Amino acid sequence: MTLTFTPVIGIEVHIQLKTKSKVFCTCSADYANDPPNSHICPVCTGLPGSMPVLNKAVVHQGMLAGMALNCTVQPTTLFFRKSYYYPDLPKGFQTTQSDLPIAANGWLTIKDDVGSPKKIRINRLHLEEDVGKLHHSAPDGRLEGADASYVDYNRSGLPLAEIVSEPDVSSSREAVEYVTALRRRVRYSRASDVDLEKGMMRFDANVSMKCSDGRWGRKVEVKNMNSFRALERAIEYEIARQRKLMEDGGEVLQETRHWNDAKGVTTASRVKEFYRKFIVEPDLPPLVVTPEWIKEVRASLPEMPGEKAQRYVKDMGLSEVDAAVLTDSLDVAQYFEACVAAGANPQRAGNWVRTEVLRAMNERRTDADSLDARPDTLAELLRRVDGGKLSTTVAKSVFEAMMEGLSLEEAVKKSGAVEGGVGADAVGNLVQGILKANPDVVADIRSGKDTAKKVKFLQGLVMREIKGQARPDEVAAAIDAALALK
Ligand SMILES: [Zn+2]
Which CATH number fits domain 424-485: 3.40.140, 1.10.287, 3.40.50, 1.10.10? Predict the structure, then answer.
């Protein structure tokens, strides 16, 4: 009998909440280019006698992220001290809400491996503090082989939300779908920038295997994934490893393993897991959020991407693919909506935003809010295209000039465009000129050699000369007429 194995996977996501200062002190949370240990104080370095004060903005952002993930906000919660000893944690304990979280019982919908909708339940979102960063002197930056280690506490005390899913994920692909959807929704809520390159989003995965003969493997916690790709590879590696062990009749040990991205393997953690003691944090009172506060936070939550995309399909007649592209980030969706609100045709605006606007954003490495060409001006430009005053080709070069900071009128002038096109006489004259300059091509056409192809060639020459200020069918008709006359 062939055995089949079903992976059972739960994902833990840490995100850095977007606030000006750290979670329990007033140190600035923005230390990007500053030297190590320049954003620290007695609280975030755990000096005796220092007292934590909870940053209200962290609670606000935690609630917001929880709501974006369909969680229910818990009115009363507590903080605990989770004790363990490691040099990146100067207090000797991490302050965390753990399983009395600010938000609980959420869910996200993804597509499963055959494309059907699948709900991934979210157990909770709890608030906690980040720890410091260790720098080891070894050339590869790893602890092994280093003769010195340095610790930087700038990150110590940054506000984190840990989002714990139920074990509803069944493959590495589903895992990536889940964290992608989670990231998109959290970014929409503006609770976090969730910038992976800046380490604002990190993943752990709990992986176990269920065998068709009734055996269950033990749960393995895989840590240290900092990108979608690392999460995908780590889960794939772990599934294959556990499956092989079980096929060979071996046993999967319950353990913590670390993902080594360079080698593409997980290895058993050499540091034995300490018994982690929890006590209630005596320096922080219970956290109570009022119904009014919850209401206020909910009011600030924008429409979420899935709902937006559905509306674009239903009310504006866009395709599902276009709607998904336009709602991938909030700034682009808002740009598109502002363009439509200013009178642009939704389909044409959608086409422009997902091609020209996204291209301009990529080239400038900026978001839609910072583009020089504003949505209302684009709407005006598109109205001129729809009204036949400008060709699409000309409109593209006008838009390009608007991106350089020119007004619509300045951009039209700069492009040399003549509103309404150059006119039939001008097209006719240009065609005559082109025919005169290409007597061999004209001769070929007359002798019936590759006629269609040669006419197309001439048409291309005219269109290039005319810089798109006439419609292709207009030019084709002018060429036909000129050839017939000769
Ligand atoms: Zn501090």
Answer: 1.10.10
